[in-house]
Specification:
Chains A, B: One of its GO terms (cellular component) is cytoplasm. Two copies of one chain form a homodimer. Chain A has 379 residues and is an alpha+beta fold. Helix content of chain A is 33%, strand content 22%.
Chain lengths: 379, 379
């Protein structure tokens, strides 16, 4: 016997009705939040010229560009790529068709993306990516809006136990240039040891002065205090004040519902962020629900702030939408009565042939002359 | 200067906010209709093994299979294809994961599809396909439900002047086998001349007896009467009775709002349909809004009925959604008041920095202490 999964390539799967209903409900809830906050949706295409897509991914994301499926377009004889990330497409739209639109420009998107190779942490190669980009600003106010919006979207999707982990993607560069000098050839090694949180390696790499950074992590208030102590020369002061303001905004907005943590040296997934990055978590998810931060649009160098949510991933932890009452419409039923029920939010399934059993078809009710009658659950 | 369109391959385009809003509104309206009628959404992946996708496209749709972008999957070393049609994927799901689900099984879908080569009639290579499939039935009742559902979906999307053109995809085969015999080698030629509606060619091809079919087209009642006259031996009687019953159902449902026509020899786009096919049109659309019909699922040979709508295409003729009132939230605004407005259906845009002009940002109102105040339109 062929098993259903044998029919699909690794990392690609069908979403059957229950799972698809969770994804659709989470998607609509998140998109409605973005729409309500003034973000206008745009729809870029699935495919672009590879050179254009890769060129819009900042240098540090070259790995991402290599992750795209590519093929020759018989129409242009040029190489096309299937997008692995929608963010660069939004940057392109902001820099071309919407370059004269007033700033700050708020854009939202939602669509499928595909990577050629799954990561060890996440076997999925297709992802339903949803996000918001605030073009023209990378200030504390912009970052606060992005974090608040992401938290509100996750809450609207029904997630609980939301937490936000802040990071400072350019921390080592900033410290190395001012407070804790490093030779240019030491910077990469120090970053690498901080990434792996290896105290011995950090010392060996000449980064002993960076050791306290390993301990400036955890709940926001205490981690920030630890980071302020590291920052003897005040090189980080404006960044740390910014983090504090963002945390205060989020705290005020969410009444403390979203827990905030700080991991200032976390760089994974923030290769193209500038001074601020954040990762979103929620109860029931083994992996991040999304991430975001401030950045510069590749090509135009315009400042921007945004975030991405992985809808199919977060839908795993979203509540199953309440099933609607489902009414069986017998042959010869009253069409107007059925239409009225649908207008009131009921679902209907019409009988097509003799011998159909309403309960087998998942119906909870049957339409009778006097209206819908509840079906006895089967014994 | 690079023009924005130079950045995208032929037949692929960005949908900017106004157009994207029309597509989103039409999509939700159509999906809500399918959901209300008991169709459960599923989400198959963008990519599959080419052999699996092509094998699910019935023989006659080999052209469609050739229309897919293909590339080698480094994970499996097998050829993958980017789907050009979601219908075969629904057939696969119905025959595998949902093979034991009770019939009739009602499934809905909506997603992006891509063809490698545009047609002369439609330069788009990416299409947003939405549809419904009724698995396990290809009866008159099933066909009536599919047509009614499609018409209701188009109406919900705001289209007007909806018309449905019925066809009988296996008409020539049926007549050739019984009432108007043709030698096997004549059938293809007669079909071809009927396709081009060439009376002279039809006679030359030995299909003189088929000439009246060229005139059995147009408004449903008169075309059906003409077709009944052709059907001297009654070979088509059950099909014609079926068409009449479907037309009566649609007429009753739509109060005659949907015009019905008949073009019994139309085969283009119906290569995999069995006895019944239909094409949907609406005011303001140069091309069809969608099509559907009865068919057998390739592989399992299970009977099914369904239809497809091309959302991006039909959104061209859908009304622009009423813009929501858009409130500018000045620095230091009352967050609770803003949240209340959003809950009431207003959209908000928050000020990020000094010097922003609410009207430049598209706002119609500004939040003041007493609530939202309308902004004077700029002179």
């Amino acid at each position: 016997m062929t098993q259903p999964n044998d029919l699909l390539p690794e990392g690609l799967e069908d979403r059957l009705p229950l799972e698809a209903a969770r994804i659709t409900a989470a998607m609509r809830a998140c998109l409605d939040v973005l729409h309500a906050h003034g973000y206008d949706r745009v729809r870029p295409p699935l495919l672009e010229f590879e050179a254009s897509l890769a060129g819009r991914m900042a240098g540090a994301v070259a790995g991402e560009a290599r992750a795209m499926f590519r093929f020759v377009d018989p129409a242009s004889l040029r190489t096309l790529a299937l997008r692995s990330d929608i963010t660069p497409q939004i940057g392109r739209i902001a820099s071309t068709s919407l370059k004269d639109a007033p700033r700050p420009l708020r854009l939202a998107y939602c669509g499928d993306t595909v990577v050629i190779k799954a990561s060890q942490l996440d076997p999925a190669r297709e992802r339903l990516q949803l996000g918001a980009e605030l073009i023209g600003a990378d200030s504390v106010a912009a970052a606060s809006e992005a974090v608040m919006l992401a938290v509100e979207a996750l809450g609207a999707a029904g997630l609980t136990g939301i937490s936000v982990d802040f990071t400072l993607p350019d921390l080592v560069d900033t410290l190395a240039a001012k407070a804790l000098p490093l030779a240019p050839e030491q910077i990469a090694a120090v970053r690498r040891e901080l990434d792996t949180k290896d105290a011995g390696g950090l010392k060996a790499a000449g980064g002993a002065a960076y050791l306290p950074l390993l301990y400036a992590t955890g709940p926001f208030a205490s981690a920030l205090a630890a980071l302020r102590e590291v920052d003897a020369g005040g090189a980080l002061a404006s960044r740390l004040d910014g983090l504090e303001a963002i945390a205060a905004s989020v705290g005020a907005m969410s009444d403390g519902a979203a827990r905030i943590t700080l991991d200032p040296t976390e760089r994974h997934g923030f290769e193209y962020q500038s001074w601020f990055g954040f990762t979103l978590y929620a109860d029931g998810l083994r992996r991040a629900a999304g991430r975001g931060g401030t950045y510069r649009i590749a090509g135009s160098d315009e400042p921007a702030t945004g975030f991405t949510l992985y809808l199919d991933r977060l839908a795993d932890a979203a509540p199953q939408p309440e099933p609607a009452r489902l009414v069986f419409l017998p042959l010869g039923h009253d069409h107007a009565a059925a239409a009225t029920l649908r207008a009131l939010g009921w679902r209907t399934r019409a009988q097509l042939a003799e011998g159909e059993d309403p309960r087998t078809l998942g119906c909870t009710h049957i339409l009778k002359a006097g209206g819908p009658a509840e079906l006895e659950p089967r014994q």
